[in-house]
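Friendly challenge for the regulars: who can give me the structure tokens for this chain first? No prize, just bragging rights.
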Amino acid sequence: MAKTVYIWGEAERFSNYRRWVESAGGRAVSGSAAAGQGALWDALLLPGGGDLEPWRYGQENTASRGLEPERDGAELRLLQEFTAAGKPVLGVCRGLQTINVFFGGTLAQDIPGHNAWADGDRLHAVGTAPSPFRALWGERIWVNSAHHQAAGRLGGGLLAVQWAEDGVVEALCHRRLPVWAVQWHPERLGNREPGRRLMAAFLGLV
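First reply, four minutes later:
Bragging rights claimed.
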């Protein structure tokens, strides 16, 4: 039976994530899960999107936009359920930021040089520290970038394992829990490397 990966929200909004999950043999499930329903699925995927409300990490709003309060609350609650059960979680872009805030970290509300170009994602190199991610991609790879916020102070238990050349954190792993996150967008890479390897490895945590 295919491993189920839950994504909060409307299915049509996250169709590229669904295809990414399915490309590695998983089954993506979307919706507005009620409290306690996390036990129904094998893993949680937190996709990209608008910015988190800055009050959630102790800051005033200085540059955050596209706020999604309902989604913030739902994904943070799901994180509580899935991490309490020891189930795998994967964050992408906003998802990395949500994970960092969940564990008590902060965000840099606006950074230069990482937003998308007018005709598509920005490409840049990243370095990877010894971690499950280095086993997937080696020490240095090129990734696609489309964000204006980034992790600030890291949350408890989180370890930065990938950085852009300007020091922006590009990937996180939890020291004990099966929680991974990347700041770039592997779901836009289809079946190409390194996106395919990441989803296959994530499903392997289930």
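The longest strand covers residues 122-128. The helical segments are 15-23, 69-84, 94-102, 132-137, 195-203. Your move, everyone else.
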